[in-house]
């Protein structure tokens, strides 16, 4: 939104931008001038760039694992995982979608089309079932050990094996994809080593604490991702493009670097770019927390 100009300068009713490669924003434009913006980073270049949504990532380390798995495929020029938006962007010399999907699945994650609807979220119980099961088994094992030490030790061994199964399975997947020293591998080695030296209770406790940490990390990542999604939802679906002096309403995924778009006062920027002419004010509170509109002159991005 625009604010009164105390210096007596008149705020133009429109702003125009020229598109340039950059990351999308959701700033509000306070006046109308010529501005430049870029096509979204996730927009695929026909025949060479492919994008997917990824399920199953809890942290930035998961994103690196996916990138490493994809980069090992012959013909892949570049692979980038956008953790905040759960997107995989791949530049390749040929159509390698089948190989990429198989590689990511082997790494323990799921790919789906960017145009597909978001998968229905799992129930809280199903999502936390492995952790709940391990906690219950830990309590039973501890109780048995108080009355019968040998049975308690055996119960802790079973508890450790139950907790180790999903972690070791993920470790094997990552080793096959080239990630030999992932945290899952180290935790598996630690738990197996503890069993060999007879520290059965400690082995089970290490796995329990690891799973608790994984769930907390996933919960924090989910909250941060929802915040990013809410910010991205502010992005308009269409833009007013100027071509040979004629205004046309187009979808933002059709914008290309070099296009000139027009933004009305109080409107939202559909893409990044540079101001072509004049002076404009932008509301950047959603991105930077600044209370007052930021003034930009021609040539500013």
TrEMBL record:
Determine if Translocase is one of this entry's keywords: yes
As for subcellular location, the record says:
Cell membrane
The record's family statement is: Belongs to the cation transport ATPase (P-type) (TC 3.A.3) family. Type IB subfamily.
Q: Name one GO cellular component term.
A: plasma membrane
Instruction: Give the top-rank taxon of the lineage listed in the UniProt record for this protein.
Output: Bacteria
Q: Which InterPro entries match?
A: ATPase_P-typ_transduc_dom_A_sf, ATPase_P-type_domA, Cation_Transport_ATPase_IB, Heavy-metal-associated_CS, HMA_dom, HMA_dom_sf, P-typ_ATPase_IB
Which PANTHER family does this UniProt record tie to the protein? CADMIUM/ZINC-TRANSPORTING ATPASE HMA2-RELATED, CADMIUM_ZINC-TRANSPORTING ATPASE HMA4-RELATED
Which Pfam families does the entry link to? E1-E2_ATPase, HMA
The protein's matches in SUPFAM superfamilies, at most eight in alphabetical order, are given as: Calcium ATPase, transduction domain A, HMA, heavy metal-associated domain
Q: What is its EC number?
A: 3.6.3.3, 3.6.3.5
User: What membrane topology is given?
Assistant: Multi-pass membrane protein
Tell me, in one coarse class, where this protein mainly resides.
membrane
Molecular functions per Gene Ontology: ATP binding; ATPase-coupled monoatomic cation transmembrane transporter activity; cadmium ion transmembrane transporter activity; hydrolase activity; metal ion binding
Keywords, alphabetical: ATP-binding, Cell membrane, Hydrolase, Membrane, Metal-binding, Nucleotide-binding, Phosphoprotein, Translocase, Transmembrane, Transmembrane helix
GN (gene name): zntA
Q: Where is the HMA domain positioned along the sequence?
A: 48-112
Spans through the membrane: 150-168, 189-212
The answer on whether this UniProt entry bears the keyword Lyase reads: no
Question: What is the protein's name according to its record?
Answer: Zinc/cadmium/mercury/lead-transporting ATPase
């Amino acid at each position: 939104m625009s604010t009164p100009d105390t210096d007596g300068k008149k705020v133009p009713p429109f702003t125009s931008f020229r598109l340039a490669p950059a990351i999308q924003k959701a700033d509000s434009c306070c006046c109308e001038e010529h501005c430049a913006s870029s096509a979204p980073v996730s927009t695929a270049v026909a025949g060479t760039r492919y994008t997917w949504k990824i399920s199953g990532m809890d942290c930035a380390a998961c994103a690196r694992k996916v990138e490493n798995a994809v980069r090992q495929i012959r013909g892949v020029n570049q692979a980038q995982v956008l953790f905040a938006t759960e997107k995989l962007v791949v530049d390749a010399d040929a159509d390698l979608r089948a190989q990429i999907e198989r590689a990511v699945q082997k790494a323990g994650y799921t790919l789906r089309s960017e145009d597909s609807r978001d998968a229905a979220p799992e129930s809280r119980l199903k999502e936390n079932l492995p952790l709940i099961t391990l906690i219950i088994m830990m309590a039973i094992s501890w109780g048995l050990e108080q009355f019968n030490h040998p049975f308690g030790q055996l119960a802790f061994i079973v508890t450790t094996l139950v907790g180790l199964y999903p972690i070791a399975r993920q470790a094997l997947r990552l080793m096959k994809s080239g990630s030999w020293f992932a945290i899952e591998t180290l935790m598996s080695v630690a738990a197996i080593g503890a069993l060999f030296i007879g520290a059965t209770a400690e082995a089970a406790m290490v796995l329990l604490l690891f799973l608790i940490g994984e769930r907390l990390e996933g919960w924090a990542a989910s909250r941060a991702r929802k915040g990013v999604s809410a910010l991205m939802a502010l992005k308009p679906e269409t833009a007013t493009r100027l071509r040979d002096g004629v205004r046309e309403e187009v979808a933002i995924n059709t914008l290309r670097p070099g296009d000139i778009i027009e933004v009305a006062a109080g409107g939202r920027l559909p893409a990044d770019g540079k101001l072509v002419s004049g002076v404009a004010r932008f509301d950047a509170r959603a991105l930077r927390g600044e209370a007052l509109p930021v003034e930009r002159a021609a040539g500013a991005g």
